[in-house]
Specification:
NAPRTase_N (chains A, B), 19% strand, alpha/beta, transferase (chains A, B), TIM Barrel, 6-stranded parallel beta sheet, pyridine nucleotide biosynthesis (chains A, B), 2 domains, nicotinate phosphoribosyltransferase, Nicotinate phosphoribosyltransferase (chains A, B), homodimer, nicotinate phosphoribosyltransferase activity (chains A, B), 7-stranded antiparallel beta sheet
Chain lengths: 466, 466
């Protein structure tokens, strides 16, 4: 079984590390983590995965079997000795987990010995990219579902053990509970579930299956009504059992629709339940749901109370990945840049701070300004490439977003529960105006540079121009 | 960190299990694992993940902390006592890992106490769906790349620790090596890598960076040439270093293109390398590659020797999931069925065997016939729903595909290395005619039912009809 050790990396990190080890073992580097494109054609993303990353960094080392394995890969003995003692001893500056974030600004910066900073790159990208993707998807689904209950049930379609982290990210992004027992246990997330078709099939007789289930698991009991025929069999049987439960002082929590036309079936179901004086029985729906299907169900007035979402959530469809990168921005105090034929892919040099602009009501105005970390207050931000565009910042409150969360390899942040992170995320999202949250052509949140940072970047571009 | 225990499941498995425990603790169930739709609009899939599943099943139990957690979820003490002693003691019948498989036929069958069979469902689906998806994607990329070298470098964009299994599946599907050190170590897969832009950026001077790297890591040395300008800087510097290596008796393995128009740059690069008498230096290309991009590069005559593939491979884009399901087909010896308004979703009852038809040359004819396990030879197969279609099977060799791979919770299969599984997969794929492998409208492989199985299924459909 997988144990995340320092060998959870790409081989080239170690190849490069050996060269650093032989030529400049004491170099200090700053790397920026950021992404370039908001997933799902949306207007924002939810930064997720920080706590896991810091926890792993604090304890990261190569196991004995990692070292034995690397001995077979042409590494020098002195470098292998170094790896045996390897610990991450750097500093990390980061946005808070759960915050609303935007492209092309550092979300996290690592400041460390270049060997250490390089070895942890893969791990950081792997955990942050995926969880940020899923939390962002979850946030969109939450947006479409308003106050309805959202249940993550995707483990069976998740990317193997990636599903464990998907559940965590889904909760931070706004889901209420999960079917994933292990993740619920480890991350302290509410756990819930209904029943499967196999349960009813094993009885053959649907009514009997419902009766046994309701008798033995009366709390939060949800009956799955589409094994044979939703309206002609499942629902009449569920109504019978609901009345039997009432006679015992219990209450059926809900019925679950898992196939067919959910809008039509939900309306028919609500009517049949109400006709049977079961107004309190909730309707749970599942089957390839995402934010667009839920939107459509809402538009049609489908009286659904609980949505179970699986595949689309835990795989972050249709994008399935976030394009987060980790770029060197400073080496031994000197600013560094990566050019590209694509102007949008040119990196930003130097250690930086990001300020979020808040309006007079404390709401996000819609602009993050990236400055050199050495700058104090800034009063103007420039468009990264369009010389004609800039924004006066003097009328805003400036919230610094990057905080030191790890120093000398030790966490500085108080350990938060998953629920606390989710709560923080919700509070931040509340500050984002609605035009950034809509699905169709959301408003574009501005990310700009301080005049000093822009000047430094442009100088480096010129120095490397051909 | 995640430890896969029996709590790696959906809560409803345990809820149902408690009801089984109270009402029919000795029931025996057969469940079928199969998928309904071939991913990527392709003509076949590569079944992967079996070894991991069997290894986990053999050692599966609830940890003490799992039990403590479940105590807070309204489970009865007697059932929790049962869970403490839980072990999977069932049998598993399966296609061999790496085999070419098709939709709507059992790929794996579990025969076990119904509680055990139910609890392991999520785990099986989670590991088999994802690895089969990625191995299938890898197989398609292999098809497009012919005999070129294929390198998996997707860990940073993989779904967190799911990337560990993605690497394994990619290798079984036809990749040559991976950048993922941990997966390479644990699954015994060749590991390789190049260098990152950060390495060159840390030097500032590209030529000096190349020199140090080539001197310290001369074996399989690949220089990344696009940090500043591929043709005007990276390549001339790489050529200088290649000649310096020659003077020391070393040889540059390759240069890597990671941006820009790969077809154009590869041609220019080949020409410049050849003009410098460096015909042996290989061209490695990466940047958002998939089977279609590689196809197109081939069509344009791009002289690329090695393809590095990341995101599209490890996330199984654009599908990002395989729709594999696990359906009850028999309970205590009685056949069971799940109906659906969608005729294609109706399940197949009873314990079954699947026969693959081989032609006179031992090639796959293009038909798998599903029969009752109790049947001996079958001489005809029927289309699942179209009464007008059937196929005479008397002229074929019949290869039984489901083998008993686990009995009483113990593995029966000899333990194979990942390389052996990959080799088997390749040998099986060789037997599949090319018309099933093409990307555009591949030929549809027939999956049919024995007359007896069809009769049994239809009887059950009639019995449950409304």
């Amino acid at each position: 079984m997988l144990n995340i050790t320092a060998a959870y990396t790409d081989l080239y990190q170690l190849t490069m590390a050996q060269v650093y080890f032989k030529t400049k073992p004491d170099g200090t580097a700053i790397f920026d983590y950021y992404f370039r494109r908001i997933p799902f054609k949306g207007g924002y993303a939810i930064f997720t995965g920080l706590k896991n990353v810091l926890e792993i960094l604090e304890n990261l080392e190569f196991s004995d079997s990692d070292i034995a394995y690397l001995e077979t890969h042409n590494f020098e003995p002195s470098f292998l000795e170094y790896l045996k003692k390897f610990r991450f001893q750097g500093s990390v500056y980061s946005s808070m987990e759960g915050d609303v974030v935007f492209p092309n600004r550092p979300i996290l910066q690592v400041e460390a010995n270049i060997i250490e900073a390089q070895i942890v790159e893969t791990l950081l990208l792997n955990l942050l990219n995926f969880q940020t993707l899923v939390a962002t998807k979850a946030s969109r689904i939450r947006h479409s579902a308003f106050n309805n209950i959202l249940l993550d049930m995707g483990l069976r379609r998740a990317h193997a053990t990636g599903g464990y982290y998907a559940t965590r990210a889904a909760f931070i992004g706004g889901f209420d509970s999960t079917s994933n027992v292990k993740a619920a246990e480890d991350f302290d997330i509410p756990c819930s579930g209904t029943m499967a078709h196999s349960f009813i099939q094993s009885y053959g007789d649907e009514l009997e299956a419902f009766r046994d289930f309701a008798r033995i698991r009366p709390i939060n009991c949800v009956l799955l009504v589409d094994t044979y025929n939703t309206l002609k069999s499942g629902l009449p049987n569920a109504i019978t059992v609901a009345h039997e439960m009432e006679s015992r002082g219990d209450r059926l929590f809900g019925v679950r629709l898992d196939s067919g036309d959910l809008a039509y079936l939900a309306k028919k179901t609500r009517q049949l339940l109400n006709d049977a004086n079961l107004e309190y029985v909730k309707i749970v729906a599942s089957n390839q749901l995402d934010e667009y299907v839920i939107n459509s169900l809402k538009e049609q007035g489908a009286p659904i109370d609980v949505y179970g979402v699986g595949t689309e959530l835990v795989t972050g469809k249709p994008d399935a990945s976030l394009d987060g990168v980790y770029k060197l921005s400073e080496y031994n105090g000197d600013p560094r840049i990566k050019l590209s034929e694509n102007i949008l892919k040119i990196s930003l040099p130097s250690k930086k701070q990001v300020f979020r602009m808040l309006d007079e009501n404390g709401m996000f105005y819609g602009a993050d300004a990236i400055a050199l970390a050495s700058e104090g207050a800034i009063n103007k931000m420039m468009h990264p490439f369009d010389r004609t565009k800039n924004l006066d910042l003097t009328r805003f409150q400036h919230e610094p977003l990057l905080k030191k969360v790890m120093e000398s390899g030790k966490r500085l942040l108080p350990i938060q529960s998953t629920a606390e992170i989710a709560e923080y995320s919700k509070s931040r999202l509340t500050l984002l105006p609605p035009e950034y949250k809509r699905f169709q052509n959301p408003h574009i949140y501005k990310v700009g540079l301080s005049p000093n940072l822009k000047e430094e970047r442009d100088k480096l571009i010129d120095a490397h121009k051909f």
